[in-house]
Specification:
The chain has helices spanning about 5-30, 55-65, 70-90, 95-115, 120-145, 150-170, 175-195, 205-225, 230, 235-250, 265-270, 275-295, 300-330; strands at about 35, 50. By secondary structure, the chain is mainly alpha-helical. A two-stranded antiparallel ribbon has the order 1-2. The longest helix is centred in the C-terminal third of the chain and has 32 residues, at about 300-330.
């Protein structure tokens, strides 16, 4: 069996597992009373099962098993470890301290495998492990925070998975192509159950799974020579929104560790945008940022600098958008 056929089989199997398992998982979640009830910080109004990310994790594990190799094994570990941690959070919740310790430990174990075989001095390797562990644990939380309206995280993972598959193709990387494509397939298979009228939410099980998968692929890409702008392009919108919201809440003296609904995309809902409009706009912005990030691979310093500057402008416009929308709404209100 050729490697190309095996990779195609891995991606197809991943999507098939997710699509088939969701139909079985949703009634089981209802029976187990794993339900997300609306609250004042929620963007939904109907009690909805959470934990729909369990089939996503299962599909990615099947794909990793078919892809094979050490890189697929560490990818599978990240998916399984963070998926189980997220499911524990869905079931009964964990304290912030315990959750961070477990996330950091999981990120460190992934990082140790990712940097194996590198020739840098020991101090540099230790620093790389620490940075990589912090990145993985941090982005898992970023992805979890941003999973707040129907379809947004499924669309985000779909785009990011396609980007990583393309980056792998560009770099002739035999792991990044099928792993990125598998993430895209898992998200595509989940979206019909969540976009539009959501029949199930990813839950922490799903957001932790996809966050860990994408963080691992981004770290792998950078460690294997792909420019940081290209590797982070599909993730930067989530990072910017969370970072901006967190610092603003801290400076305002708010309890920043408490649940809230003050992310940029949530403010779009507050001015009357539908979940679908929010998701499509955020996805389109992510595509644009991914394309600008990909300019870093052209090898032209001037083009790279121009694309970086344009990407910064897109991010600033995104962060400023709630104020601009509120101002426009105020101008159109009747006197």
């Amino acid at each position: 069996m050729s490697r190309e056929f095996t990779n195609v089989l891995a991606v197809a199997a991943c999507g098939a597992v997710v699509a088939a398992a969701e139909a079985v998982t949703i009634p089981l979640l209802r029976r187990a009373a794993i339900i997300d009830f609306p609250g004042r910080r929620s963007s939904h109004t109907v009690p909805t099962p959470r934990g729909g990310g369990i089939p996503v994790a299962a599909g990615l594990l099947v794909a990793a098993g078919l892809i094979g190799g050490a890189n697929a094994a560490v990818f599978a570990f990240a998916v399984a470890a963070f998926g189980l941690l997220g499911f524990a959070e869905d079931l009964r919740g964990l304290s912030v301290g315990r959750r961070l310790i477990l996330q950091t430990a999981g990120g460190a174990m992934v990082a140790i495998v990712l940097i194996r075989g590198r020739a840098e001095p020991a101090a540099v390797l230790v620093l790389l492990v620490a940075l990589c562990a912090a990145w993985i644990a941090g982005f898992v939380n970023v992805f979890n925070f941003m999973d707040g309206v129907n379809g947004i995280s499924g669309a985000h993972a779909l785009i990011a998975g396609v980007v990583y598959a393309c980056l792998g193709w560009w770099g002739h990387d035999g792991f990044l192509v099928p792993a990125g494509a598998a993430v895209a397939a898992s998200a595509l298979a989940f979206l019909p159950w969540n976009a539009g009228r959501a029949r199930v939410f990813l839950g922490d099980a799903g957001s932790y799974t996809l966050g860990a998968a994408l963080a691992t692929l981004a770290a792998y890409a950078v460690l294997h020579g792909i420019p940081a702008e290209a590797a982070l392009g599909p993730l930067v919108l989530y990072i910017a929104d969370t970072g901006w919201t967190l610092q603003r809440r801290i400076w305002a003296g708010e309890r920043w560790r408490q649940p809230h609904r003050t992310h940029i995309y949530q403010k779009w809902c507050d001015v009357g945008w539908s979940h679908q409009r929010v998701t499509v706009t955020a996805a389109a912005t992510t595509v644009l940022l991914s394309l600008l990030g990909a300019a870093s691979m052209a090898g032209d310093p001037a083009l790279r600098a121009a694309a970086d500057l344009a990407g910064t402008g897109v991010v600033v416009a995104y962060l400023r958008s709630p104020a601009l929308l509120a101002r426009r709404a105020a101008r159109t209100e009747p006197c």
